[in-house]
Amino acid sequence: MGSFSIWHWIIVLLIVLLLFGAGKLPKVMGDLAKGVKSFKAGLQDDSDDATPGANAKTIPNQPANTAEAAAKKDEAVRS
């Protein structure tokens, strides 16, 4: 009762063929394959973006290191 026999799988296959038809089944499987490929590509893109410094952007006319800018401001105020 816990496992499926070959007859269970044959019945499931026949029901799937009746629902989708033999012509639509390759299209459905192709769409599924495209979805899996795009999912894998998305995971690979996310891992590429996770590298340190990959998304580092500097704003023009702004100091790159804020700690250095804060030290310069403190020095200018003390003078």
Structure overview:
This protein is mainly α and 79 residues long. The protein is 72% helix and 0% strand. It has 2 helices and no strands. It is rod-shaped. The N and C termini lie far apart (86 Å). The model has no long low-confidence stretch (mean pLDDT 78).
Features:
rod-shaped; mainly alpha; 2 helices
Could you tell me how far the N terminus lies from the C terminus, measured between alpha carbons in angstroms?
86 Å
Radius of gyration in whole Å, from Cα? 29 Å
Q: Please report the total strand number as a whole number.
A: 0
**Overall morphology:** rod-shaped
- List the helices and strands in order: HH
The stretches of 5 or more residues where confidence is low (pLDDT under 50) are: none
The level of helicity is over 70%
Which secondary-structure class do the elements indicate? mainly alpha
**Sheet with the most strands, sense and barrel status:** none
